[in-house]
Amino acid sequence: MSEYQQFLQERDRIDFLLQNEYKIKKITENLSGAFVEFEKKKHHKDESEYATIHITTPEARKYFSVILIKQQTEDA
Amino acid sequence: MADLRINFAGIESPNPFWLASAPPTNSGYQVQRAFEAGWGGAVWKTLGDPILNVTSRFAAVSFNGQKVAGFNNIELITDRPLEVNLKEIYETKKLFPNHAIIASLMVAPSQEKWHEIVKRVEDAGVDGLELNFGCPHGMAERGMGSASGQVPELVEKQTYWAKEAAKTPVIVKLTPNITDITVTAEAAVNGGADAISMINTINSLAGVDIDSWNTIPHVGGKGAHGGYCGPAVKPIALHMVGECARNPLIPIPISGIGGISNWQNAVEFLLMGATGVQVCTAAMHHGFRIVEDMIEGLDHYLDDKGIASVMDLVGKSVVKYSDWGNLDLNYKIVAKINADVCINCNKCHIACEDTSHQCIDMLKDLAGNSQLKVREEDCVGCNLCSIVCPVDGAIDMIEIPSGLPPMTWNERQAALGVASCDSEK
């Protein structure tokens, strides 16, 4: 699989979570790439659901970074 | 006609083209010939205690048919008594009162020595002084030149001593043989320098003869490192000028030196913050009259751009020069091969396949003709294919929308930092 195809897959996984009301909660970057932790707050409850995606392509690392900046701007 | 006059730290010159302190400015005869040819100023070959030179002093590096792509020298400062040089400076200034004559100076690092030479040289009528803290060979072994220029405290102290005695502007010429030239530039500022000039030559060994095993050049079978200059060093010099020009702690004019061979090179240095330029290797290669093309080319360039004065060019590209962390990660260009111009030599394919990102396919069109095509989605816009392509116009690097807003590395890291902090809450 080309790196571009891999990027598309990773972008789709990010978009899927965003469409399901998840938000980026935490990002851990290390030698293996980036681990992006998403959080979805449940309605009327003080509980959350979590999901983590392992991002390996540079284009997807740029992509989630843009999402994060946008999210922080909206939350500010 | 545009106004080519410059005012460099108070030194006026009919144009921004000066000869650098070097063999071309060794004598009054040479400097007068240079002024007659059109040079706006000259930095006299460095004055100090007269030295002894060796024979076999220069060597050049030719590359792929280009003669003197780089130039190496092991010649030292003037070997003539100070009185002889001063007499010729006085005579030359009298003949060319509107041209700039700068005296390059190098003495041992003592206050008394600097005071003495500054006073004697200024009495001859020079327009300014250039402190040679850059010469990398010979004199450095005696604690002068780049040996001084590599120690910020010595740069500051000696600049201060020269300024104590000087009535004319003091330019500090910096060595590139240092990790960060802004450190010594700041030291010059702290010492009271009116301006800085850069770069002096880079430590070098031009080559080794693989038959005789002698160095190039050699002096009776023995060699020593020299100073490298010429077109090959231009990118290094341009970077150092830009680094100083954009540093707010270095708010003094810069004289750009390093591989300037034509008016276009000069414009680059002016745009990157130099108020004037100094030239040596190109004059040694082609003679003083190359300045005619430089003046004419610069004049036409300014007229074409509608710019009235060359001074209006100074520093215009500095704001565009930053740190890597401030570049937009989402700016995207890709290669586009123009099939009607491409000669199908496959150099781009080989370069991309072997050493870059494997995104140029060798295809056949319907008629069975070879065709090279870029897979844009895999192209990272590195430029390598267009660099190795032997045909002008065969490969264009074109901007394409990334679909993402601009984002720098610094902005990204700041956002990630906030995310980490928030996640701890």
TrEMBL record, chain A:
It comes from the Bacteria. This is Uncharacterized protein. It comes from Peribacillus huizhouensis. The lineage of its organism: Bacteria, Bacillati, Bacillota, Bacilli, Bacillales.
From TrEMBL, chain B:
Involved in pyrimidine base degradation. Catalyzes physiologically the reduction of uracil to 5,6-dihydrouracil (DHU) by using NADH as a specific cosubstrate. It also catalyzes the reverse reaction and the reduction of thymine to 5,6-dihydrothymine (DHT). Gene3D superfamilies: 3.30.70.20, Aldolase class I (3.20.20.70). NCBIfam families: PRK08318.1. This is dihydrouracil dehydrogenase (NAD(+)). GO terms for molecular function: dihydropyrimidine dehydrogenase (NAD+) activity. Keywords: Iron, Iron-sulfur, Metal-binding, Oxidoreductase. It catalyses: 5,6-dihydrouracil + NAD(+) = uracil + NADH + H(+); 5,6-dihydrothymine + NAD(+) = thymine + NADH + H(+). The lineage of its organism: Bacteria, Bacillati, Bacillota, Bacilli, Bacillales. Belongs to the dihydropyrimidine dehydrogenase family. Residues 333-365, 370-400 form the 4Fe-4S ferredoxin-type domain. Heterotetramer of 2 PreA and 2 PreT subunits. SUPFAM superfamilies: 4Fe-4S ferredoxins (SSF54862), FMN-linked oxidoreductases (SSF51395). It comes from Peribacillus huizhouensis. Its EC number is 1.3.1.1. InterPro entries: 4Fe4S_Fe-S-bd, 4Fe4S_Fe_S_CS, Aldolase_TIM, Dihydroorotate_DH_cat. Pfam families: DHO_dh, Fer4_21.
